[in-house]
Amino acid sequence: xxxxxxxxxxxxxxxxxxxxxxDGWSFLIIRDAFDGLRRFGEFQKNLGLAKNILSARxxxxxxxxxxxxxxxxxxxxYVLTEKGRGLFxxxxxLRQWSEEHLFEPDEARSRIVDKETGRPLAKLEIRxxxxxxxxxxxxxxxxxxxxxxxxxxxxxxxxxxxxxx
Length: 165
Description:
Layout: H1 18-21, H2 24-34, H3 40-47, H4 51-63, E1 67-72, E2 75-80, H5 82-85, H6 88-101, E3 142-143, E4 157-158
């Protein structure tokens, strides 16, 4: 089996998180943590994942700071960190994309809803800094030197020729 390429030093912000979340099981563990699961056995029962694989994924998510372990009596529980909770919009976007493109209209599915109203969430929109909705044709990829804010830099390199996502 070939070794996976590491994207740790990638300048592309889409490639870099693949080292942390490039495995589908990791996304499902994070999803379950958002749904309130906290114990190893709960994750294992819900996912049906082999214990050794679940253990490795949980260890990696803790090592990358997405989950932390907290004592819970004679057990330990896995709790989302602020960094892990930051994935909420990513999971909502993934759910909404999936609902739109991977399900038939009459097919059963889970849906994320507002606890207060019980209604589905509005579709996520990407907006420019001035509030305008933007899509793929309204954006381009630029290189921000030294991790600065693109708004604060006078010179940005257009890297769209590199075909990075």
